[in-house]
C-alpha cells in the first residue's frame, strides 16, 4: 500500500493525481446540460408548430377524397348520402327507405371526424349557405371554405363529383 509524504492529505494527493474526490457536478457541466435541454425543447416546439399547419392541409385533403367518394357512392347506391357539418367536425348520413337521415355506418372512411383545432368552415351549395351537403343522382355544385390559422382552403365540387382544392394566402398577411 503506497504511503503519502508527510504533510500531504489524501484530498490533495487525489487532486494532484487527477482523481476527483467529490461526487457533484461542476457548474460548466450543469450549464452544458441545460443548454442541450433548451435546444431540444426549442426544436420540439418548432416541430409541433409545423405539424399543426400540416394537420389542416391533411384534413382538407382527406375531406376532398371523402367528398368525391360520397358522390360516387350515392350514384352507385341510387340513394342520397349527406355530409352534415358539426360545430367541430362532420359526419355522413344516408337516406333510408322511410325517408329519414340515419348515420352512414358503411366503410370507416365515412366515420364521424373532428376538425383540427382552430379550424372552422363555411359551406355554400348552389351559391346559398348550407349546413348539409347532399349527394344524389348528381353531385351538387358547392364551395366549402375551411378557415385555418395558416390560411383558407377551398374545396369546390362540380356536378361530375370531382372536388378541386385551392389554398389561399395566409390569413392576416
From TrEMBL:
<keyword id="KW-0812">Transmembrane</keyword>
<protein>
    <submittedName>
        <fullName>Prepilin-type N-terminal cleavage/methylation domain-containing protein</fullName>
    </submittedName>
</protein>
<dbReference type="Pfam" id="PF07963">
    <property type="entry name" value="N_methyl"/>
</dbReference>
<dbReference type="InterPro" id="IPR045584">
    <property type="entry name" value="Pilin-like"/>
</dbReference>
<feature type="transmembrane region" description="Helical">
    <location>
        <begin position="25"/>
        <end position="48"/>
    </location>
</feature>
<keyword id="KW-1133">Transmembrane helix</keyword>
<dbReference type="InterPro" id="IPR012902">
    <property type="entry name" value="N_methyl_site"/>
</dbReference>
<keyword id="KW-0472">Membrane</keyword>
